[in-house]
Amino acid sequence: MDRRSLLRGLGMAALAGTATVAGFERRSRAADADGSVVDARGSGSLRITKVRPILTAPQSRVRLVVVKVETSEPGLYGLGCATFNQRPLAVKTAVEEYLDPFCRGRNPDHIEDLWQSVYTSSYWRNGPVLNNALSGLDQALWDIKGKRAGMPVYQLLGGKSRFAVDCYAHASGRENAQVVESVQRLMSEGYRHIRIQLGGYGSPHLTRDGDFKKAGFGLPGDSVMEPGPYLRAVPKMFAAVREKCGDAIELLHDVHERVTPIQAVRLCKDLEPYRPFFVEDPFSPEDNGWFKVLRPQTSVPLAMGELFNNPHEWTGLITERLIDFIRVHLSQIGGLTPARKLAALAEAFHVRSAWHGPLDVSPVGHAANAHLDLAIWNFGIQEAVAFNDAMREVFPGAPTMKDGYMHVNEAPGWGVDLNEDLAKKFPLPEHPGYWEPVRRNDGTNVKP
Ligand code: GCO
Ligand code: MG
Fold first, then answer.
1. Coil vs helix vs strand at 55
2. Residue 131 domain-assigned?
3. 66 occurs within a structural domain
4. Using one digit for the tens of pLDDT, what is the confidence trace for 75-112?
5. Is 154 a catalytic residue?
6. pTM: predicted TM-score of the whole model, two decimal places
7. Could you tell me if the CB of 166 is within 6 A of ligand 1?
8. What distance in angstroms lies between residue 82's CA and the mean position of ligand 2's atoms?
9. Which is nearest to 196 in space by CA: 283, 236, 254, 243?
10. Which of 48, 256, 309, 443 would staple 212 via disulfide (CB 3.0–4.6 Å)?
């Protein structure tokens, strides 16, 4: 049956139907002819020609890994964040030895299919390193898709749900007075949400002198953390900031899984009077089961998940309404493709997003966070990052901050490029990136 008789058979007005179909065909052919966009029936001739990692450290010795996907169309490439600061060379190997040969010759248009194909190609899956590499590929494919469509990625996700991305900044200090000062400075810069910490995670009392060292246990670089001083100090810090900075400012805190689960339960209850916006990572991912103990005891909003890799880690927490903010690190779960599905799952249970946005995410990764933040309805808050000049030069188009809001630009794709010549001027530090242990006074290892 030819198309005309098919349309007649469907009872459609032949003229209007033909005009619509013909109009579609005209657009398709025009696009075919320019050699970049292909028709709705599927694949054109565009192919992936190379997938390669670019490693650079323009800021604070943080080891960034960005994946560049090159295509058969001259000048058309995409960038994706694959950063894993503690194991950058393992990600580099995964990209060079496995992703590149696997992806060459495949069609970059088929993002979902490529994601699933790479994901299952290792049989064992859902771990860091391979997920980071997969994220680099995935985000690069979305970048390419945006460039082919002539649109920023947030448009491909449905367009804006908000004009910009509301962010929280980090305040910290050794003493409460310094934390207060730091909060006041950030408030004057326009931030409405501020995370407060007494120095490093688990401080005060994160020192280099522990009983174990005197006894010759461990190494000189190991640090010492006892939970008691931390647990007593944090509520006092909240009290001091509330007293000096008022009720309107939203305060956040990252426990960073440094105490035992029952101590974290106590801490959340102690913080309740100060109305935190959220308390983050009260437990390790290994202790996910403790959310069922914590939830009935406090109305403090809970944020969890920057360490998650496997959907099993978040699905139950969301569907059983045990957390309020999902905080995954996009490149640890495999990129934008799984993150937008996760966002949709979370929306059904009124869990909001708070994607992980520390310095060890490249500007491409921060752009991916922000594009998703702009598009989804259940956006919660975004962790802000302050790029130095070197980072902005290596990554032209990186997101910008104004009055506590993050903005992306309107260029197609992520809107972020990578100056490779400049990136080479910031090689990775010699130290491979692993963390030295944090220990209790007796030498017991503390997570993380
Ligand atoms: C955060 C974090 C980070 C992580 C870091 C690990 O909430 O921003 O917990 O600071 O510790 O990204 O490499
Ligand atoms: Mg954290």
1. strand
2. no
3. no
4. 999 999 999 999 999 999 999 999 999 999 999 999 99
5. no
6. 0.91
7. no
8. 18
9. 254
10. 443
- Annotation says 98 is catalytic: no
Q: Count Cβ neighbours within 10 Å for each residue of 141-179 and write b for 16 or more, e otherwise.
A: bbbbbbbbeebbbbbbbeeeeeebbbbbbbbbbeebeeb
Closest atom of ligand 1 to 280 CA is 7
Catalytic entry in 77, 191, 201, 405? 201
Residue 147 forms part of a structural domain = no
Region label for 403, one of left (φ > 0), alpha (ψ between -120 and 50) or beta (otherwise): left
Q: Give residues with Cβ within 8 angstroms of 205, minimum separation 6.
A: 224, 225, 226, 229, 230
Res. 17: pLDDT tops 80: no
Strands of the sheet containing 64-71, edge to edge, are 48-56, 64-71, 77-81
Q: Which atom of ligand 1 is nearest to the CA of 170?
A: 8
- The whole domain housing 375 covers 156-410
Distance between CA atoms of residues 16 and 25, nearest Å = 14
Specify the DSSP element, H or E, that contains 341: helix 336-348
In this structure, what CATH number is given to the domain that contains residue 358?
Answer: 3.20.20.120
Please state, in angstroms and rounded to a whole number, the distance separating the CA atoms of residues 15 and 391: 57
